[in-house]
Amino acid sequence: MSGFDMNNYVDVEPLEIETGLPDEVCPIMYTDEYKQVMSVARRLMQEGEYSERALQLTSKAIALAPAFYTVWNYRYSIVEHLAKESGDVEGYMNKEMDWLDEVTLGNPKNYQIWSYRQALLKIHPAPSVKRELPILQIMIDDDTKNYHVWSYRKWCILFFQDFTNELTYADSLIQRDVYNNSAWTHRMFVMKHTNPSKHEVREEIEYTKKKIEIVPQNVSSWEYLRGLYEVFLDCEYDEETIKFAEKFTDDILKLDITVDKEVSALPNIESSYALEFLADVFAKIPSPENTNNAKKAYTALSLKYDPIRSALWNHKMGQLA
Amino acid sequence: MVGEIRRAKFIGNLLGRRREIVEQVVSEEPYKEDQEDDNDNDNDNDNDVEEIEILMKEQDTETTEARAHVINDCVSLLTAVNEKAELKSDFHRQYLDYAFQIKLPPQMTALDASQPWILYWVLNSLAMLSEDLVSDEMRRRIEEKAFAISPEGGPFGGGIGQLPHLAATYASIEALSSCANSNGSWDKIDKKSIYNWLLSVKQENGGFKTCYSVGEVDTRGVYCALSVASMLNILTDELVENTLQYLINCQNYEGGFGGCPFEDEAHGGYTFCAVASLAIMGALDKINIPKLIDWCATKQYNEEKGFCGRSNKLVDGCYSFWVGGTVAILEAYGYGEYIMNHNEMREYILRCCQDTKRPGLRDKPGKNPDFYHTNYVLAGLSVVEYTFKIDNPKDPFSISAEPRKGVPSSNITAINPVYCLPIDLVKNFANHFK
Q1: Which pLDDT tens digit goes with each residue over A239-251?
Q2: How does it assemble (chain B) (predicted)?
Q3: Domains and CATH numbers, chain B
């Protein structure tokens, strides 16, 4: 692609981008370059010019203002036209994707890139998941919880219906940072869309427990463990998992815990989320012993381990049989 | 060629930035050591620090490293008990008044496609501080700008000559509703054309696309469309066909909502958009409310006191509203007052989101104030200091508020949490279009 040169647009009558209001609220002090580029872009859009120079102008405009959605839309129309004219739609689209990769690397927080990318893939004659994953990996490596990129990755995997690498990919991010909630939710995305067998669900539960053993005080892994039981196992919590959770609560349910308990008399525990998990599990299976344990767990959470939510724990206690 | 070299360098940088994971066991009071480094008042802190001593086996990762810094900053502000926690209304008012005096510098060009947002954030922030602060002249200038952007009266784009956009239309209607129909501006809004445009960006799956033809489809779009439609009284069955199912599918296993209906990560902003949309549709009972309540509650941190927007992410003042507003909607619809700790949230807002040197409200200590955070932090304060109920669950404009017992008052205006606008203003607007 040749360099951008404003001289290629001298025949275009610019269309004003300022309101001209005498006392406008919060007008932006545009640079001369910005005004020039955008006012020409406005005119070309209005005239519906779909040309190579129009394409170059949108590159420039997007470099100046990546969130300018109107120009993204205009560019999409230009690409649609020019790709057809070129006689090599696939080659043309690939070239466009290369350009988009460059812009993507420089604008990690941008919204427009991702919907534009989706729109391109939909009209690409031979889209490829292999073409997509490297750039996504680079973006995630740089910002491991980037919402747009994770969401786009999910869209992409559904678009290509290729889940092959996804659990491994999410695992690599969890290995890097076990608290990465985006990576945990990606595993659930895969599980929910691949109709796992009972055995596979069990394996996933074991995987999660191993991660909890490394870091017991982690909301992401505990939420995920619960999620697996709720989504795939009808909340049928087994004895083994209850015992597993108890490991992180220092047997405190064997203590006598009432609201007037001295906070200092409660031991330190490894995980408040384990205690919360136990409380909710016991609350779901009615028996005098379970109810009593749930009550003790909620009381302990309220007193010491998660006091900011004491109103919630009290409410849950009130709902016990 | 140049591009490829640049990319190679970029990738090199990224790899260089990757951190090794170090496993370590943190025995006791993990944050105290740091805190003593830059705090002169150690004695004041001892009691508070003791609350944070869950014995943690912790891995030192990007997550813990980032959060340790934030906790350190917040705890020193939260424990400065000699300073009164109060809203510096007059100070923040200066910041909002600037908006009517200044031109935004060229580096703010990033906001060029979001100009109506500035109108809404500034006007609504002033109205929340006190409705008396909004002058007729301010209203006139806001209206003029909105109608300069869309002389036809809607739908609205981000600036003149820009395509209509759901977020810009939402922000414009919100801003205009706060103008109290001065100069008859409400009658210049073209309901019919907004309705037809909303239908044109409606998707088969029940979502809405922010812009035709390339735009995002997520719960933000649904919220913007449904807010505008309900305020202008153009909310038809046709407009919301399949939308309920779309929203239901956005609730993920965590209990909160993601942006898209395919198990996206639960997120405070998208959760608010989904829950407010469900409230507008009178369909809150169609989702898993207990899971949603647990998710919202878990977003409040014991140490920083404020909300984060996703599990294991950092606290941010704007979630005082995105999550706090969700909680307020649940409260209004009768699901209880126990979901958040209001006094602790208020402490985060007043002690961590204000600065003595710079007016305006901010995300967290160390960040600069901006109009966006000023609006949503103040809105968060409003949902903390008032308690909400609804007269008719089918009519979101019938939400009313009264001061919350046991929570001090900052004399902030009560907002309708569904619309993030002062209760009376949005009710008057909706009545005008009935």
Answers
A1: 999 999 999 999 8
A2: Heterodimer of an alpha and a beta subunit.
A3: 2-78 (no CATH), 89-432 (1.50.10.20)
